Amino acid sequence: MIDKQSPIPIYHQLEEQIKSKIEKGEYKPGDALPSEREYAEQLNISRMTVRQAITNLVNERYLHRIKGKGTFITEKKFEQNLNGLTSFTEDMKARGMTPSNKLISFEIVPAKKNLANHLNIAEHSPVYEVKRVRLAEDIPMALERTYISANLIKGLTDNIVQSSLYQYIENDLGLKIGRASQLFEATIANDEELEYLNIPENSPVLLMKRITQLDDGTPFEVVKSSYRADRYQFMLDLER
Amino acid sequence: MIDKQSPIPIYHQLEEQIKSKIEKGEYKPGDALPSEREYAEQLNISRMTVRQAITNLVNERYLHRIKGKGTFITEKKFEQNLNGLTSFTEDMKARGMTPSNKLISFEIVPAKKNLANHLNIAEHSPVYEVKRVRLAEDIPMALERTYISANLIKGLTDNIVQSSLYQYIENDLGLKIGRASQLFEATIANDEELEYLNIPENSPVLLMKRITQLDDGTPFEVVKSSYRADRYQFMLDLER
DNA sequence: TAATTAATTTGGTATATACCATTAATGTAG
DNA sequence: CTACATTAATGGTATATACCAAATTAATTA
């Protein structure tokens, strides 16, 4: 189970192993994990190394410890993606609905002033513009416009953007994704939103803008999403 | 500086000491911290104990480590309060505006069904209801309604609620505050919102609901805030 | 002088050990 | 059987030590 010769740290191997068992259902929410000393003996590693693995998973809220009792699988694991923010896809699945996307357009366009500012690039620099409608049970829920620096993120296809943008950036381009800032705003639907969301005039929409950065702080992505206010709410989970 | 006999763990004492130096400006953003070995020798404690303190501060983003170089004070420390979410007061100050509150009412009322559900109490149980308008430069920005379990949080006054609710709960009642869930929604202003926010009919408002829990998961507070959409946006900072 | 190499310093990983505090299980006296 | 004390198990804190990997600095060589 644990390869001491591997260049991957032991504590990290153990982390992945525990996470995998949680995902597979071998460890169920509420269950007690084997004790630290038990793990150490079983895997023939130091208890402190076990603690390091468990501490990380506690910080990520997969587990929680109770002194004198043990370590337990956390009941509900929220955030899979960006901290605490439920993604549209996950959220819809959680509500028992089937999420889907409809691509409207995928092209390279020159960045307008405001966008160029957000992405910290020169005006008219090339950016990928991806427009799509997000649906649940084939009902339009949101209009999403994604803008990505073309000079920074090269070789994008509509397919990558729709399925695995972040993996592509980290695994294929070798870049590291950092933090993001997100902004919520309420507005009245404009013409484009009326059209794609199929809602009546003067409907309120929940506008969400996100600027995502690389590890070094370089912004590479701006996402502007307009959600139907009558059908969607953002749920957020916050820590102290 | 460090009291080994104290019941407060050494690593925690060191954490507080470092945080205090950052706040006082003795350590400035971008500065390198003394090395782990240096700290250990200086304070006559183990390097591993120093690491534990620093690791916690790294997790809280006060510090960041660079292998081979050192540990540095993080440039910008975001979230002071709940993770990444800018509070109204802080946000307004950051924009150079003067925030203020106007108390509309402070009373104990029986919980309605929906509220009772959120607070996990029986219907008609007593709850504090605090209504106030939040202003910036004396212009109404939001209508805020706070509901707090009266059986759980005793002895509240309007003054406490307005100034230091969380400190009161933790320091005076000895309870520990845990996580919170937050929800964003766009609606059209209702009559109450029209009145207090002084906006025209059919104006969109950004509705924010927050449920705050104690450390053990017991919900104790529900906050429902209606923000003028034309004057306020929620800014959020997300981690990976 | 410039380029290379070696040594030093830094954080990263891992082990072994010790004792404390809380909780749960066990044993014991009434 | 109950109430209390004891014991065992668990996570929490702390130390000492060792070696690795990346970055910097110093020394050496061409």
The termini of chain A sit apart by: 35 Å
Please tell me the CATH architecture of the largest domain in chain A by its name: 3-Layer(aba) Sandwich
Shape designation of chain A: globular
Looking across the biggest beta sheet of chain A, what order are the strands in? Answer: 3-4-5-8-7-6
Order of SSEs of chain A: HHHEEHEHEEHHEHEEE
Tell me roughly what share of residues is in helical segments of chain A: 25-40%
The main β sheet of chain A shows up as: 6 strands, antiparallel
CATH topology title of the largest domain in chain A: Chorismate lyase
- Ranges of chain A where pLDDT stays below 50 over 5 or more residues in a row are 77-84
Topology record:
2 copies of one chain form a homodimer.
Chain A: H1 10-24, H2 36-43, H3 47-59, E1 63-66, E2 70-73, H4 88-94, E3 99-110, H5 113-119, E4 126-136, E5 139-149, H6 158-163, H7 165-172, E6 177-188, H8 191-197, E7 204-214, E8 219-228, E9 234-238
Antiparallel strand pairs in A: 1-2, 3-4, 4-5, 5-8, 6-7, 7-8
The first copy, chain A, binds a DNA duplex (30 and 30 nucleotides) through residues 4, 9-11, 35-37, 45-49, 51-52, 54, 65-71.
